[in-house]
Design goal:
- The structure holds two protein chains of two kinds.
- Chain A is α+β, with helices and mostly antiparallel strands.
- Chain A has three domains: about 45 residues, no CATH class; about 110 residues, 60s Ribosomal Protein L30, Chain: A (2-Layer Sandwich), CATH 3.30.1330.10; about 170 residues, Alpha-Beta Complex (Phosphoribosyl-aminoimidazole Synthetase, Chain A, domain 2).
- Chain A is about 25% helix and about 25% strand.
- In chain A, the strands form three sheets. A seven-stranded mixed β-sheet of chain A has the order 9-11-8-12-10-13-14, sandwiched between helices. In chain A, strands 1-2-7-5-6 form a five-stranded mixed β-sheet, covered by helices on one side. A two-stranded antiparallel ribbon of chain A has the order 3-4.
- In chain A, a hairpin with a 5-residue loop joins strand 13 and strand 14.
- The N terminus of chain A is likely disordered.
- Chain B is α/β, with parallel strands linked by helices.
- Chain B contains 16 helices and eleven strands.
- In chain B, helix 2 runs parallel beside helix 12, helix 3 packs parallel to helix 16 and helix 8 packs across helix 13.
- The chains are: A alpha+beta, B alpha/beta.
- Chains A and B meet through helix 1, helix 7 and strand 14 of A and helix 2, helix 3, helix 6 and helix 16 of B.
């Protein structure tokens, strides 16, 4: 007789009997959902690596597969829109596996009443982004939901890419002594979108950093930088990515705040709203873990790429204090970096 | 923003730390009033730079933390009303009441929206004339002027579907309550710069005189706080108890006259219940005169809702500076930001959240 599946719902997770927004915030609520529901239910060695994409071997070589759903309000924001974002999202997840993105699918959930002109603009933007990244959108699906049951348009993209080298690039490859690099200044996407979100608009010239990182990754590989791990810094920001990698690798990460690139607009807007830029979302930034002897070479490669002009070496991996992330500052003191519960919310005064 | 570099300059901060060390001859306990200051202290590790004799305790100045649990229950009750839109500062959404939090109320179908200003909530009321729009007006003297302005404008424009759920509290009465408590340890205060930017310096003089405590109006950046501590310790060491202003770049003696006038137009001083501190006479604001028509408690008949705090949460002792967050037996195990027992673990200005996020404390 087959084993009886476990039908007891592990919920309430954190005492919430229903899904709340924080479950999608990329912080500890999301982490809990993955750890307590998705991982045990779908258990397999590929998934449990908890990387941005899945890497598997076929008869013709190694491939990467990933998926990403996009819900963003407003649909068009300074520096991008949901269309380009949905292409770059999956392309970047594939790139983080060291893969060259090849084919994408696009699933649309459209809300009744969405102007055709809006949809056309989004499709055009996806088409441009796909061309730019050398990908083809080769399959798709469309569903329409009643008015009021969607937010204009939701897009899911999935993608496959080929891995043209024999290196394993994932969090379990991170080693003590590795240098941590970030490919550019952080927080642009989150703050650019927040600035135009209903209810909390503020004036700024900030543009989202929304971009493909596939070229930058290929440049690193071509330059023979023995990359140990790459991580796309999306929701939850640099801090959450570091916590995830520290926990998966079992080593600690020590960052130096002075070296974390941050533009004035982002730091000012964060100060004003009481947000920590370390947790603000990015859509065109990655963190790279490389052996310290190759850190300078990796930095040079990044600086030579349009996506890595403001790249910086921001920290190192150590054996002690396993699983923890700390950050020292200009005052010579240090603090712990932890996972947030959900999204950061603007402070009161 | 220029101050970000100037007021976080490591060398300048260390110079103040040295200066404090030089003048300190015995133990002193100082309280920073504002939760924003607490977070700066913990985030930048400023207390680690101070001599051992200087002990910083964290004050009640976190608007989320001091809002009593029954007000959260009232907000949830409003949010569950099918024709209501409850607008709130984002930070309030995660604070637990006795029946869950506002995030859960939203997940249960309530129309809960987070806004950055009460004037945005007023705008939502203008656009939704057939629905009752309520703004959850929490905070100290800093948020009062904008909340007053929203009601003033609603009154002037005849916007009848707008109201406030008021939970406004005032800093000076809380300081007096702390100082007159039998277990008080506080010998000097760093007063909250933003509050004083509105209210000015005057109301602190009687407190400094009556209780012989120095009160230094202080900003929020590392350099501000170190300078505030330096001024405060200098007074303590020389036996002075004066009101001093470290944050002169923002705080004028008379405060912001227009903002104060707006507060006085719309609000009157009333007794208020504080989470963890109980009811303090003359310690809060309520709507006055004609503006009482904009009171959501009346409009939604909420006066019957009352609730008591969790007995396990020691928020009261934390907010009075009697205990530090990690001295609570629930800290980090039964109480975390994901599953908070009390507000100080939730708010971005709460002392418990600051310790949990930034400190390596083994529990």
């Amino acid at each position: 007789m087959p084993e009886q599946p476990n039908l007891v719902c592990p919920i309430p997770i954190k005492d919430y009997p229903k899904v709340v927004l924080a479950h999608g915030g990329g912080g500890s609520f999301t982490h809990d959902l993955i750890e307590k529901m998705f991982l045990p239910a779908f258990e397999n060695p590929t998934l449990s690596r908890l990387h941005d994409g899945a890497v598997f071997t076929t008869d013709s070589g190694r491939m990467a597969f990933s998926t990403d759903s996009h819900v963003v309000s407003p649909l068009f924001f300074p520096g991008g829109d949901i269309g380009s974002l949905s292409v770059y999202g999956t392309v970047n997840d594939l790139a983080m596996c060291g893969a060259r993105p090849q084919y994408l699918s696009a699933g649309f959930i459209l809300e009744e009443g969405l102007p055709m002109e809006t949809l056309w603009k989004i499709i055009q933007s996806m088409s441009r982004a796909a061309q730019e990244t050398g990908c083809q959108i080769v399959t798709g699906d469309t569903k329409v939901v009643d008015k009021g049951k969607g937010d204009g348009v939701f897009i899911n993209t999935s993608g496959v890419g080929i891995i043209e080298h024999d290196r394993n690039i994932d969090p379990t490859e991170v080693h003590p002594g590795d240098a941590v690099l970030v490919s550019g200044d952080i927080g642009r996407h989150g703050m650019a979108v927040m600035a135009v979100r209903e209810g909390i608009e503020f004036e700024t010239t900030l543009q989202s950093d929304c971009a493909s990182l596939a070229e930058l990754v290929q440049d690193l590989l071509k330059a023979n930088v023995p990359v140990h791990c790459l991580r796309d810094l999306t929701r939850g920001g640099l801090a959450t990515a570091m916590v995830e990698i520290a926990q998966t690798s079992g080593y600690s990460i020590h960052l130096d705040e002075n070296w974390i690139p941050l533009c004035r607009e982002v730091s000012s807007a964060c100060e004003l709203l009481g947000l920590d830029p370390l947790y603000v979302a990015n859509e065109g930034r990655l963190a790279a873990f490389v052996p310290s002897a190759y850190a300078e070479r990796a930095l040079q490669v990044m600086h030579a790429s349009p996506q890595g002009e403001s790249a910086s070496i921001i920290g190192r991996v150590a054996k002690e204090e396993a699983g923890l992330v700390t950050m020292t500052n200009d005052l010579g003191t240090s603090r712990l970096i932890t996972r947030l519960s959900g999204e950061q919310l603007p402070r009161i005064c | 923003m220029k101050y970000l570099d100037e007021y976080r300059d490591g060398e300048a901060v260390r110079r103040f730390a040295d200066a404090i060390r030089k003048i300190t001859t015995r133990p002193w306990t100082l309280m920073e009033i504002c939760g924003g200051q607490t977070h700066s202290i913990v985030r930048f590790g400023l207390d680690e730079l101070l001599p051992e004799q200087i002990s910083l305790v964290h004050g009640p100045g976190c608007p989320v933390c001091v809002t009593p649990v029954e007000l959260i229950d009232k907000a949830i009750e409003i949010a569950s009303h099918p024709k209501a839109i409850l607008c709130s500062f984002g930070d309030m959404l995660r604070v637990p009441g006795t029946r869950g939090d506002l995030f859960s109320a939203k997940a249960n179908g309530g129309d809960v929206r987070f806004v950055y200003s009460p004037l945005d909530a007023l705008d939502i009321a203008r656009k939704n004339r057939y629905r009752q729009v309520v703004f959850f007006a929490v905070g100290f003297e800093t948020t009062a002027p904008a909340n007053a302005m929203a009601v003033y404008q609603a009154h002037r424009e005849g916007i009848e579907n707008f109201s406030l759920l008021v939970s406004h509290v005032l800093v000076p009465p809380a300081m007096e309550a702390l100082l007159s408590a039998a277990d008080n340890r506080v010998q000097g205060f760093l007063a909250a710069g933003h509050v004083c930017a509105i209210m000015g310096e005057e109301e602190y003089k009687p407190i400094a005189d009556r209780y012989s405590v120095p009160i230094v109006i202080t900003g929020f950046e590392p350099l501000d706080i170190m300078e505030g501590i330096h001024i405060c310790v200098k007074q303590l060491e020389t036996g002075l108890s004066l009101v001093d202003n470290q944050y002169a770049r923002s705080v004028r003696k008379e405060g912001n006259v227009h903002a104060r006038r707006m507060i006085e137009e719309v609000f009157e001083v009333i007794p208020r219940k504080w989470r963890g501190l109980g009811t303090i006479p003359q310690s809060g604001l309520g709507l006055r005169g004609d503006y009482k028509a904009f009171d959501a408690e009346e409009r939604f008949s909420l006066s019957k809702i009352s609730a008591e705090e969790s007995t396990e949460c020691i928020a009261g002792e934390i907010l009075r500076g009697v205990k530090k967050p990690h001295q609570c037996s629930a800290f980090g195990n039964r109480c975390t930001p994901d599953k908070p027992l009390g507000a100080p673990m939730v708010s971005s200005e709460g002392a418990c959240a600051a310790y949990y996020r930034h400190r390596l404390i083994t529990v």
